[in-house]
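Hi V.,

You were right to ask for the full record rather than a summary. Here it is.
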Amino acid sequence: MNTEHAKSGDGRKHRWTQHNADRRRDVINAALAVLERDDRPGEWVTAQQIADEAHIHRTGIYRHFADRADLDIAIQRTICDQLQHTLTASVVLEGMPRSVVQRTVATYVEWVVAHPAWTYVIEQNVAGTTESPLQETIARVADQIETAVEGFLVLVDAQLTSADLKLVGPWVSSLIAGGVGAVRTWRTQRDAPPLETVAAFIADTIWLQITGLGASRGIHIPKVPLERLYNGARL
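Predicted structure:
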């Protein structure tokens, strides 16, 4: 095989791959821009709206996506990546133990309020696929919170049984599912309480579970900033 010819072919392949990735990103960003301007969330963005925003012909979208399901999942995944990035920054063992819960819950509620159309989109099932970027994101965030909880248990020298330790993950998942469900229901209420009220209420219910479970296992939750126990480590 001609080495120079092979290198030229590899170069063209790389340039096409990069070009396709760039165009996919442009189309997704166009969809997000349209959604962010939607002051009445509740519908998917249309291909024509995306094409107009991206300044391309509607059929040009599908040069870079296999079909509408591929496009919709890509849009969902991009939104979920932004949500995960936002939440990840809040799940840190810093401040008073109670404030960690409040900060994480408030961050999620604030994100939902700031991005109602994005939230609607990631909560929808995409026809033609079983993929769910939102569920994948929730699972990753749950893993991060589980790691933080395990770190906290080490900080307070908690002595749990092996069965309890194995149940930390499912318990964390139930807390997240309950919080997400509560926010979803709150968003549909007429004359709903303000953001600060719902965030504090959900954080209170989670904190009551934490303190109640801790008390039942003889775990002392210190009333001091966690930095004093572990030098502000991020988990």
